[in-house]
Each structure stands twice: as structure tokens, then as C-alpha cells.
Write a structure and sequence with these properties.
This protein is α+β, with helices and mostly antiparallel strands and 295 residues long. It has 4 helices and 14 strands. Strands 3, 4, 5, 6, 7, 8, 9, 10, 11, 12, 13 and 14 form a 12-stranded antiparallel β-sheet that branches. Strands 1-2 form a two-stranded antiparallel ribbon. A hairpin with a 5-residue loop joins β6 and β7. α1 runs parallel beside α3 and α3 packs antiparallel against α4. The longest helix has 23 residues. The relative contact order is 0.15.
């Protein structure tokens, strides 16, 4: 098999041997860590693609030592994403979401989200029907305030729900308390450090121009459902900020063959410069329809 470890290292040096800092103007800047080998991204990418083409007829499995090399690249990105998002107090984004619940693939959703880390707070408004939801840690008895804009649920007005109750979890795999890039990154890290014990799988990464800027796309393919609950996992890392801004996880069908989407979450238009004010996490905000009598 081609020397993937060396190739991943060279490509990884050009992309991963960088650290993100926030300037006083809130603009992302990149600096290279001292002592790292300088490699042109284009050259490393060409070498990687050539190696992949030359090895396409071989069994697409990595030996444990080669797997460790590619996983090191992924885990480095994951660590940098966790560091980067901890430097952000609040942000806005558009969440593209599609999940499978109880075997049924839900319709795609597009949701405007506002996230504040301390205290943890989430405001969501669905683009399709205007539905709203608000969760603020420590307020409203740690309940979710939600309001449907269509159907019978709209007649009730504002709903006050436990985040993980049956009603709040309709069409969801995770409660509102798990929304956001930080929570997403934590779940991915937990899966690969605590839950996933598979030792044989393929792992590739490449640079793609997504979201109008370079994205490092990492994809993993697992051999069977005995080894992993997912058949494939795709992760999108912003090449500049290093944030993990998207995942697409596919599952197995009842025969044990690779199937379609289990979970897809992509945070578009991430903005931590024009970040939301505290009033945007207030149920009394006149722009929302979430005000209710707390008595």
C-alpha cells in the first residue's frame, strides 16, 4: 500500500500546523507554528491524489499503523475545532438539518439559530413555517419555550416543555440543549474517543471549495454494523478557522448494507462578528412570539 502516513503528514502540516487567533477587530488571522516543515498545499494535495489513484485497485483498508496516521490528522482538526469555538462567546448561523427518526427520514430543515455559550442559550426560527424555540439555561425552569405557527399546535400558543420530553423531541435525535458547533464537536470527539472501538476502516481527506472558502473534508468508511453504528461519516472543517461546521452520518439498512442519512447538520453563514445581544435570548423580545405568563 502507498505510504499514506507520510502523505497525510505532509498535507496535514500545510493545513494543521497553524493556530487561529482573534484580532481586536474580531477578524480571524492565521500564524504558522514555529518549527514546522513548510509544504505547499497544492503539492501535497497532488501527491495525495496520485497515491489514491495508484492504489484504487487495492483493498480499501488501512493497517493499524496507517490508520493511526490519518486519524491523527482528524483528531488534530477536532482538537483545534474545540479550541477555536471556546474562543467564541456567541454567534449566529443557518442550520441545515436532516435526520432519520425511528427509521423514517425527516424532511430537510433550514433553521436560523442564535447561540450563546454562557449561560448556554439557543434561539431557533424555522425558515419554512416560522416556528420558534428558545432555551436559556437557568431561566423558565430550564424549559424550552416553543411556538408553532401552523396546525393544531399553533392554537395552544407558547408551549413550555422539558428539553427531552416526547413533544420537544418530535422529529429530533437530540434536544435543543445539544444545538450548536461546540456541542456537535463534543459529540464527535466522544464518539471517536469513548464509543467507537473499530480498528479497521478507511479514512481520507481532501480540500474542497465549499461555503466560498476552503474546507477540509474528512470521510470515514466502516466495514460493518458490528464495527460501527454508522456506515460512513463525513466531517467538514473550515480550513481557516478550523471549526467543525458540518457532519453527514450514514447508517446501515436492515440487511446490514450501507444506507442513507442518519444525521446531517451543517452550520452555514457562521457569524461571530455581528453576534447576537442578550435581548435576543429574551422571551419578551418584541421580534419574537414567545412571551408568556410565567405565573
Amino acid at each position: 500500500m502507498i505510504g499514506y502516513h507520510h502523505l497525510y503528514y505532509k498535507l496535514g502540516v500545510a493545513l494543521l500546523a497553524q493556530t487561529m487567533t482573534f484580532s481586536t477587530m474580531g477578524v480571524l488571522s492565521i500564524k504558522t507554528l514555529d518549527g514546522q516543515e513548510q509544504v505547499a498545499v497544492e503539492d501535497a494535495e497532488k501527491e495525495l491524489q496520485t497515491a489514491l489513484l495508484n492504489s484504487k485497485d487495492q483493498i480499501p483498508e488501512m493497517a493499524p499503523d496507517e490508520q493511526a496516521g490519518s486519524m491523527e490528522v482528524f483528531l488534530t482538526l477536532l482538537h483545534e475545532s474545540e479550541d477555536a469555538i471556546q474562543s467564541v462567546d456567541r454567534y449566529t448561523a443557518t442550520l441545515e438539518k436532516q435526520v432519520r427518526v425511528d427509521g423514517e427520514l425527516q424532511d430537510p430543515e433550514e433553521i436560523e439559530v442564535k447561540v450563546r455559550h454562557k449561560p448556554f442559550s439557543v434561539y431557533m426560527q424555522w425558515k419554512g413555517d416560522g416556528q420558534e424555540a428558545l432555551y436559556v439555561e437557568g431561566e423558565h425552569e430550564n424549559h424550552v419555550l416553543a411556538r408553532a405557527k401552523t396546525g393544531l399546535a399553533a392554537l395552544k400558543g407558547v408551549w413550555k416543555l422539558e428539553p427531552d420530553c416526547k413533544k420537544a423531541m418530535e422529529g429530533n435525535r437530540y434536544p435543543i440543549t445539544e444545538i450548536g458547533i461546540q456541542k456537535l464537536t463534543e459529540r464527535v470527539r466522544k464518539f471517536f474517543t469513548d464509543e467507537n472501538k473499530c480498528e479497521v476502516f478507511t479514512c481520507t481527506h481532501e480540500i474542497q471549495d465549499l461555503e466560498d472558502h476552503p474546507t477540509i473534508v474528512v470521510q470515514m468508511t466502516f466495514p460493518s454494523q458490528e464495527e460501527s453504528k454508522y456506515s460512513t461519516c463525513k466531517y467538514l472543517f473550515d480550513a481557516e478557522s478550523k471549526l467543525l461546521y458540518g457532519v453527514e452520518l450514514c447508517e446501515w439498512d436492515y440487511k446490514g448494507d450501507p444506507a442513507g442519512i442518519a444525521e446531517k447538520y451543517i452550520y452555514h453563514d457562521f457569524n461571530c462578528i455581528d453576534s447576537p445581544h442578550d435581548k435576543e435570548f429574551d422571551s419578551e423580545n418584541p421580534e419574537y412570539s414567545l412571551a408568556m405568563d410565567e405565573d
